[in-house]
Amino acid sequence: MKKKILLKKHNRVRIVLVFLLLVNFLGSSYSQGRSISGTVTGESGEPLPGVNIFIKGTTSGTVSDVNGNYTINVPDNDAELVFSYLGYLEEQVIVGNQSVINMKLVPNITSLDEVVVVGYGTMKKKLSTGANAHVSGDEMDQKHSLRLEQALQGLTSGVQITANSGQPGSNFKVRIRGVGTIGNAEPLYIVDGVPTSDVAYLNPSDIESVDILKDAASSAIYGAKAANGVVLITTKKGKAGEIHISYDGYYGVQNVISKVDVLNTQDYVMLIDEGYINSNPNYRTNRKYPNNLPFLPQLDANGDVVYDNNGNVLIDPSVFDSVKTVNWQDYMFTNNAPIQSHSLSVDGGSEKSTYSASLNYFAQDGIIGTHDQSSYERVSVRINSETRIYKDIFTFGENVSFAHTVSHGIGVGNIYGNNVRGFISTSPTFLPYDDAYPDDYGRSIYPAETNPLGNLDYQCQNKTINNKALGNAYLQLSPVKNLRVKTDLGFEVSVNEYNKFTPVYSLSTLDMNLHSTAEMNLDRNSKYNWENTITYNFSYGKNNFNLLVGNTVRERTRYYAGGKAYDLIIPDLEHAILSNGTNDSLKTNYGTKDEESFLSYFGRVNYDFDEKFLFTGVFRRDGSTKFGPANRFGNFFSFSGGYILTQEDFFHINGLDFLKIRASWGQNGNDNIPSFAYQSLISLSDKNYYFGNPQTKYIGAAPDQIPNASVRWETATMTDIGFDARFLNNFTLAFDWYIKYQKDWLVIIRGPELTGILNDNSYPIGNGGDVKNTGVELALGYLKTIGDFNFNINGNFSYNKNEVLHIPTADSLIHGQTGVLYTNFEEFYRAKDGYPLSFFWGYKTNGIFQDTAQINHYTNNGKIIQSRAQPGDVIFQDLNGDGLINEHDKTMIGNPWPKFIYGFSFNAGYKGFDLSFILQGVYGNDIANGISSMNTFSPNKTIDALDRWKGPGTSNRIPRVTDGAEPNKNWRNFSDLYIEDGSYLKVRSINFGYDFSRIMSKGAVKQCRLYVSVVNAFTFTKYKGFDPEVGYGDFDYSRYQNMSAGIDIGTYPQSRQFLFGLNLKF
Amino acid sequence: MNKMKIFPVLLIFIFLMGCSKDFLDKEPFDKVTSGTFYKTRKDIEQAVTAVYDVLQRDSWNAPNLIAEAMSDDCSGGGGIVDGFGQNEFDQFYCIEADLAEPNWQNGYLGIYRANLVIENIGNVQWASGESGSAAQYTGEARFLRAYFYFNLAKIFGHIPLAAKVLTPDEAYIPQADPEDVYKHIAEDLLYAIENLPATPAGPGPNSGRATKWAAEGMLARVWLFYTGYYKKSDIAGIVTKSQVTAYLDDIIANGGYELLPDYSDLWELDTATNDYNKDNIETIFAIKYSYLGHGDWNISDGNRWQVMVGPRNQTYVPFAHGWGIYPVNPSIYYAYDTADIRRDATIINWEEFLGPGVYDVSDQRQYTGFGWRKYCARANSESQTVTESYGGNFMIDNFQDLTILRYADILLMAAELHLGDGKDIEYFNMVRNRVFQDNDHEKTSLTIQNIMEERRFEFALEGLRYYDLLRQGLDVAKAAIDSNSFQTDEFQVSFPSDKGFEGFCKIPETQVTLSNGTLKQSDYWESAASNSATH
User: What is the pLDDT of residue A3?
Assistant: First the structure.
């Protein structure tokens, strides 16, 4: 075992070495001819080092030095020099007979001249009429993220990104402008033109830019898949000119940010005793008292319980002979878990051909468990090139990415599969390792309670290897100027190998495994995507047109097979393969295959008059296998317009440099439902019966699902009004107001069970009513250079309000799941007309009954409302005034969606030093805190339990302790006692760096920046769980229900990371 | 200009692609389309099997278990950390809006699948020699449909009739008059009696299938409940007392069934075969279970309710661990004659079996000192639940069949119907003599109370007691259930006598709200508060 780990480490070292060797081998090129020199300066005359200067149409070039000076050889007077520098406008100069060319570069502060990606093309940002967010790769780099979603967190308005958990490699929820569906609400990702649903394979440092299409008009070109918004990702491309080689790497350690305060053993035992005494007035004679549990209170001479001055039960000291003291969280977290990333990239090219390639290694261990229990490693490669031949008539190119990931994960799922929860709620009364069990884990004094460390060890031996390749190849033909015909073939193949090993073990009466078990499966998803487009630009006077028509065909196949084997010859994870099993009577297998396809046609017109009046119209027609022949195709339109007021001579306001107002209206679709919902099918699975003696298995057949032949597209319609402005030279401002209606919402339509319902999946999927999201987004930027000091500040703010307008069932609601917070727990979130999606549904409380008189005076309709309550029980509000507390009194007691989200970033540079930080926050959302089982007594609880009622005036919030069976259902009712404010502000990253190339002797090194970073430096929140960034979702037993939010049953917290890194550029 | 030529060519090139008509037509790989199904004998046989499959889907609130919880024989119990559903059944309160919903769902699922068979069997192309099959398959489907309706009617009292396969739009049907429901049940069983084979008693290749005998016995049970509870003289004028008496006589005379010599053998594991005593000469109809689900939670082939009644998380060979739910009340244990072997075949006296204080009560809610022996899953000498030796999961793959109807019931029902005509004593004493192994306990005269008491002892923990009480009247049920409160507050049960309580469970609240007002909750349940728990 140890040997293997060493080997792995050795491999990692080797990869790093290969990177470094490559860096050394590759050098810069040289140029010859007449010499030209000069100085490149910024606006206020400060020298600009590191500016790229190259001769247009060649690969010859150089870079300005620390003082902004450069020298370059040019072949002749016709040579044209190109000066480019990130964040500044590119300048071009024909050499002529000059020998000294000094160049002043103007900062590109407005970003309005930058080019944004808009789907099947690019356009100048200032001419765009949509509500799009553009994020450059540089901005994301500061986050040192494993994944794109993480890198984007907080950087744009209107996009809420939540980590599902802090487990390395776990997924994110990305919600653009609110949630409008209970199906898959993730946006569509388009990477270099190839659609994909999962961008985990991407290395963020390979990304040149991300463009998020937020309004329907912008995303309408993607039609039927775009209802949740579109994220366009452009990977880095080579540029004509010099070869660039760069290395980015960091190494760091991670630790837990804060632990959850749970009861210590003394307090735990005290509350157990108190609960027993409260629940069993005659506990000394009642056999129900836990006579074989050693939790004895001290008794006086009369046999009465002794209390201390604070009213707490005094424990018999002998209790601690057998009851141990442990805080499981001390065993849960790993200190200084390593994280590292190394990227090497090369790009370059000539006028005819450009290329870019990179190699990245990323590894992260989880802060819970060992490397083999929770970790993620990824090796990824990316290559692209583009070549223009025959007078630029033909262009062809390709983008290819490949990623290999290996991950191990602990359970972060529901209450039955959540290791984190076990560490919080296991009683603190027994030892992780106990001499009584020399080769095993300690056993609890409760026979049914499991040692969480043992469970982590025995249940979390799994390994997932994923190989994913994604890319495209394209050929573009430009027979006449401004006409481009392009055919583009994209593909994605993702192969997932999964192995899980479970040894024979026994940790409690409920947690055991009798046969060593291997589970093994292979899951292959392959897609291809063929797109053909024609674009044509032309102008007629000041009228400029850009036309696009195209079509797409797409097909996806999933092939999935696996099985389980038992009684293994070699019982370990390495050998968790099916042929290793010996027990033929137990072995099982499973597998499935499905296909879907997609066909669409689309067209777009972009028009502007004198870059002043702007108009875009889009039409798209999509066909999907998800729907029956009559409803297969959907048509989607959008229109948008803009008016750049500052282009008008009559419009002049001092200090206002640029103002564009814009408005858009558009539609797009959602076909994200399971296949064959429209078709009546007979299933033969799980309908067996056994006749005869001896028994013979007979296969049964019946429909599992009620079809809905008329199921059709869900349509999202969005109206957006906004403006973009630049003022006082340094400020930029973008504002948007939108209203988005999800119409013909795809939902499971529950109805009477008289139709024959096998399970939740049996109900037909149909088109419901509306969900409305209304919001306001604001993005403000400020950029300033003062001498050598430059800095920029960006802030964004988004408000969104979600409301379900209509659900097409008789009761106008969609039920949430039951049994979420603990076994048999009642439904506590739902969707209902007039409320936000998945709001928390429960009782409102009104404090605690302090005495019997209060109980008797709490009446309605002439009845004592809580007649069976006792002092110390919760007062529930009888909202309907009928004198009873029942589900008719439940109401909305919390909203899991934030009122607004915000982000803030700051960057500053001074003579090679740089400092940046990024803040991100959410405000006004509620979390249902279910991390400890307050309803029953044996699990451990958070220290809030100490604030319980123990006599008049002691508490008006936390009820008395009981064994959980009190008739008043203090905790078994879902009430506002569970609801906590989930607002938080996180300092996502702080970076400080210095570029040593400024003090190095002149050479090939253009940048040598060393930096330190802290990721997730601080979290400001009132929330009492591990992490207010709660990503638990319905664990989808049912086919089409995925709406829960803000539910914490034990979240794998995100780690605080201290990183040390190096950026090298040659 | 060549621009003009290139354009149309390119357009054609692009729009020809992907246009083949069937590009968007896909079919599933593991299902068949319904249009091509229900055509062959094999199809219909599979459709009938799917109706039987619903019998296996009962879980923690299986009809037999909740009947025991509501009766005077069992408390709710469970673990300290469990929910309170079982206690709600025991004590007639209902916190959970949809407490009995699985029974509602399974009932109508079974009815739906039976209706599919009945409606589609006309489309089958029968091969020569198969002509009798249609009547038999229809008979099986109608027998099962009657079984599901009877369960629904007993549990919920007021139920809608889904007399055909319903589309979602057609499913808003008000509750039927109970007389119409029972008429529907009786018609199905009459058809089954006429059309099902008179399969010989005992094991055989068709064990588990409904027979003429099963239909006759089931009709007698339905008749007794309906006429008793609703105080009627017959079922809707179509089944009279003399008719059902004749059916029972037919079973006794022609069915070939016998009482097993030793009552205890009915419930024991045969250690030689490692199997329970299935399909014996006394079994008339049973729900069949298997361990072949092998722990797969997606396969409902095992007995999923048996784990409920085992001792709470503790195995005492031969009794396998379970969840300690529905502990047996001492009153039934002490009501038995000490010479009655049924007592110890039915109930485990933990203090006697283990010694005092051994049973671990730390996680046992409502420990009564008594547990289920009948239907407690067995453990082998290595303390392994037997299903685990076959690769099953102790929670979902127990495989003891649930006997729905056995010969002793036929005899006692016949005694009841023949009460006073001489045959009653003969049948009654057949049952009684088996368990006392002598003739000293024979009765020479019988009252209805004698028969009801005998039924209590004979069928304890088989899910019949509660409905035997109800059919004698709500006052009788209340007296029996209330008098059982043997210890402290926590076991106190009061059969509700106010607000028109009818002895039925709450109709799932969600079904009421989803029904567009077509389903009505009874007054009692409408006004029941979530905090009116009485434990």
Answer: 43
Structure tokens at A511: 């947690």
* Residues written for chain A: 1066
Q: How far is CA A761 from the centre of its chain?
A: 27
> CA-CA distance, A597 to B279, in Å (whole number)?
52
pLDDT on residue A28:
36
Tokens describing residue B394: 């102790």
| A349 backbone φψ class: left, alpha, beta (φ>0; ψ -120 to 50) | left
Question: Which residues in chain A (555-574) have CB-CB distances under 8 A to chain B?
Answer: 566
Which residues in chain A have Cβ-Cβ distances shorter than 8 Å to B204?
A: 692-693
The tokens describing B344, both together, are 């110890």
Q: Nearest chain A residue to B27 by CA: give it.
A: A676
Q: Across the interface, which of A684, A689, A810 has its CB nearest the CB of B514?
A: A810
Question: In one letter, which amino acid is A515?
Answer: H
A963 chain-B contacts, CB cut-off 8 A: 80
Q: ipTM score here?
A: 0.94
Interval B455-486: pLDDT, tens: 999 999 999 999 999 999 999 999 999 886 56
Residue B372 binned pLDDT confidence (cut-offs 50, 70, 90): very high
CB contact under 8 A, B113 and A702: yes
Q: Confidence class of residue A109 from pLDDT cuts 50, 70 and 90?
A: low
Task: Write the pLDDT tens digit of every residue in A262-283.
Answer: 999 999 999 988 888 888 766 6
Residue A285 amino acid letter: T
Question: Any bridge partners for residue A522, and if so which?
Answer: A497, A561
Which tokens belong to B529?
């508060």
**Interior angle at CA A704, CA A698 and CA A706, nearest 5:** 150
Instruction: Please choose, from the candidates A979, A952, A938, A937, the residue with its C-alpha nearest in 3D space to the C-alpha of residue A870.
Output: A952
- Residue in A with minimal Cα distance to B60: A824
Contact residues, A window 435-494, toward B, CB-based 8 Å cutoff: 446-448, 479-480, 483, 485
Across the interface, of A550, A679, A690, the residue whose CB is closest to B33 is: A679
| Closest by Cβ to A751, choosing from B289, B365, B514 | B514
* Distance, CA of B204 to CA of B193 (rounded, Å): 20
Cβ distance of B391 and A585 shorter than 8 Å = yes
Nearest one of A562, A482, A554, A550 to A523, comparing CA atoms: A562
In A, minimum Cα distance to B82 occurs at A823
The answer to whether A538 contacts chain B (CB < 8 Å) is no
A window 172-231, beta carbon within 8 A of B = none
Query: pTM of this prediction?
Result: 0.86
Residue-level pLDDT at A97: 83
Which SS3 state, helix, strand or coil, does residue A332 take?
Answer: helix
Distance CA A357, CA B385 (A): 60
What would the two tokens of residue A1017 be? 């430096």
Give the contacts of B531 (CB within 8 A, at least 6 positions apart): A866, A867, A868, A869, A876, A884, A885, A886, A967, A968, A969
CA dihedral B56, B58, B64, B66 (to 10 degrees): 180
Express each pLDDT in A56-101 by its tens digit: 877 678 888 877 888 888 888 888 888 887 667 778 888 888 888 8
Considering CB atoms only, which of A479, A624, A936 is closest to B2? A479
Strands A353-365 vs A61-63: parallel, antiparallel or unpaired: unpaired
> What is the rounded distance in angstroms from the CA atom of residue B397 to the CA atom of residue B402?
14
For the record, the structure tokens of A684 come out as: 């033969």
* Reported confidence tier of residue B13, pLDDT bands at 50, 70, 90: low
pLDDT at A19 over 80: no
Of the two residues B444 and A294, the one the predictor is more confident about is B444
Cβ-defined contacts of B27-30 (< 8 Å, 24+)? B28/A594, B28/A675, B28/A676, B28/A681, B29/A592, B29/A593, B29/A594, B30/A592, B30/A683, B30/A684, B30/A685
Provide φ and ψ at A894, rounded to 5°: -175, 155
